[in-house]
Amino acid sequence: MITTAFDDARYDNRTPYLVISVLLMVAGAFAYIRSRRTVLQMTALLGGMSLSFWCALLDQATFFGGLASWFSSPGSWLAEIGWMLKLWANVTALMLVPFLIRLAHRALAPGRAA
Q: Which residues contact 81 (CB under 8 A, 6 or more apart)?
C-alpha cells in the first residue's frame, strides 16, 4: 500500500522519504505490540500509518521543488492531497473495521449489563 503512495520514488532516487515512512510504520507496529489496551493499539497503528502518509505528501512536495512551489503550481497539490486522503481513508477504514466489530460485539453481548 505504501509503495502506491511512493509510486515513482525508486525511479527518481527519492528513497529517503520512503525509508522514513517505512521506519515510522515499523515504529507503529512495535508500539502496537508493546501496548496491551485496544485503544492504545489502534492509536499506534493509525499513528504509524498517518505519519507514513505525511511522509508521502512531503515526498510529493519535494518532487515539485518544495512546499512553496508545490502550493504555487495550480491544481497539482489539490489532486495529490485528494488522492492521498482517499488512500489514507481506505487504509484507516480497513484498520478500524475489526476494532469496531469487536466493540459492537461487546456492546451487544448477552448478559452484559447496560
A: 57
- Residue 93's nearest CA partner among 29, 54, 49 is 49
Per-domain residue ranges of the chain: 2-108
Neighbours of 38 (CB within 10 A): 12
Q: Enter the C-alpha cell of residue 30.
A: 512495535
d(C-alpha 23, C-alpha 109), whole Å: 39
Between CA 54 and CA 32 the distance in angstroms is 19
pLDDT digits (tens, 9 = 90+) for 64-106: 666 666 666 666 666 777 777 888 888 888 888 887 888 888 8
How far lies 100's CA from each of 42, 86, 113, in Å? 11, 20, 19
